[in-house]
Structures are given as structure tokens and as C-alpha cells.
Amino acid sequence: MDDELLRYLQGMEGRLQQGLKQDMTEMEARLIERMRDMQTELLKAYLPAQQQSQIRDNLLEARGAAVESRVAIVEGRLLEIEKRLMMNPPAA
Q1: What confidence score (pLDDT) does residue 86 get?
Q2: How far apart are CA 92 and CA 73, in angstroms?
């Protein structure tokens, strides 16, 4: 009787361990799926903000290029004025 009980309890323990392992595996799969869903939601929320930042950066870069172009034009004009003044200095 004791041997039968021992075998029965060992069998029950094995089945419980197997069931627990299966439950843990299923919970892990659900957890991974939820984590992926959260990551997707975060990326979806971040994308519009990142796109807005990119647009702002592009505008600033374009404005900077325009300012540099205008400065180059002014410098060229000043150089021409200086050349003329050197050729024909004003009478003092």
C-alpha cells in the first residue's frame, strides 16, 4: 500500500510539474506578446513627434542656408565697395 501511494504521489507530482511548466510557457508567450504590443504603441506615439522634429530641423537648415547666402551677397557687395574706394579714394 505504501509503494502504491508513493507511486501515485510521484505520478501526481510529475503531472503537476508538467502542468506548471506548460502554464509558465503559456504565460511567457502572453507576456512577450503584450510587451510587443506596448512597444508598437510607443513607436506609433513617438513617430508623429519625430516627424515634426524632422520638419522643424529641415526648416531651420533651409533658413540657415538662406541666411548664409544673404551674408555671402552682402560680403561680395562690401568687397566691391572696398575695391572701388581703393581705386578712387575720396578726397579728404
Answers
A1: 86
A2: 30
